[in-house]
Amino acid sequence: MSDRGKELRAYRVGLILLAAVIAVLGTVLWRVYSEYRRLKEQKPVPPAAVHQPEQLQVSRPVVAQLYFARVVEGKQRMVAIRRELPTGLGVARSALEELLRGEVPRGCDRPLPPGTELLGISMQDGVATVDFSEDLRKGFKGGSDNEQVTVYAIVNTLTSLPTIERVQILVEGESINTLGGHHDVSGPLAFDDELVAPHS
């Protein structure tokens, strides 16, 4: 092959390599430009939508006064026991479940009859309406003080929570006039400390 032919061949190879380089650069630049356009067209996230650590809500325990039954000098009374409950929905339910199934303090008794179940609870305008199973009434042992302790263990425990001022007690979804014939529970009841004894 003559020198002229060699030069032409080298020239052609150079052109091919240059074209390949230009093609690769063009592809890279096109991808970069496309990504730039995509990012530019995205809507910015409003500052309010970004969660800052200091803005996150922290669950804090609520301290409730749980009222348990206790015999004081031969008479049925109740004592207030401070206990932490989880926050959020269901705090009132948690307080009542503690009365029904939670740890009973030494020297105290559970204020509600065995087998009593909490069927439902709702709140409106500061009034908590609580619905219990028939066991609340059927399992009641009798006696004026016993009845008052049972009723106000419920009422006083719930009114120790924020936003609850009065309590309406239902049995199987129905209002009742009395639990055991001594105290009227047909309407919402407020806190009553008549039978509350100091806890020692």
Textual characterization of the structure:
The chain is of the alpha+beta class and 200 residues long. It is 35% helix and 22% strand. The protein has a domain of 114 residues. It is built from four helices and six strands. It has a four-stranded mixed beta sheet. A two-stranded antiparallel ribbon has the order 1-2. Helix 2 packs antiparallel against helix 4. The radius of gyration is 37 Å and the shape is rod-shaped. About 8% of the residues have low confidence.
Shape: rod-shaped
**Residue-averaged pLDDT:** 82
Helix content: 25-40%
SS elements, strand count: 6
The unreliable regions are 43-58
| Distance separating the two termini | 116 Å
**Spatial order of strands in the largest sheet:** 3-4-5-6
Main beta sheet: 4 strands, mixed
Order of helices and strands: HEEHEEHHEE
Strand content: 15-25%
Secondary structure tally, helices: 4
Key features of this structure:
single chain; 200 residues; alpha+beta; four-stranded mixed sheet; two-stranded antiparallel ribbon; 4 helices; 35% helix; rod-shaped
